[in-house]
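Sorry to interrupt, but I need a hand with the structure work. Leave the record below and I will have a look:
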Amino acid sequence: MNDTADVSYSKAFPVSWEELHRTAKALAWRLFEMRPFEGVIAITRGGLVPAAIVARELEIRIIDTISAVSYQDNAVDKVEERTRGDVRIIKPTSMTQDGEGWLIVDDLVDTGETAKAVRALLPKAHFATVYAKPAGRPLVDTFVTEVSQDTWIYFPWDLEPRPVEPIVVVKR
């Protein structure tokens, strides 16, 4: 386990497909003036959808992936039982260079541990995320939305439509 203490997630931030698309497109607008990029490297799995949207908006045809894992799931459906482990690169990018001229895209930078591991491999790439938390924000070059460190973001691929109780009922 790394030396970053696990955060208690006291807030939930559900993101719809429409919101993710709109925010990833806003990320593309921020990156527009920085073009051209030779290609995009998506950090899987969360970076796949935002990377596809950014690549489409910037007409980037070369897309690669790098796969990193940091969460150890002790309970698949319970966020509070997830713990952070050391970041492991389980599938490196096919790139053999330092990343210069390339764009790395992820959905979120949280503690920054994944960003550190990827930056170590591609130090000259431009790192962009849709969402950033304070602990990881200094490690990315471009992001759109900042959320507090104690917020768990529920991405659309984590959710199913279902009825929920109003806040007033939940807080009783």
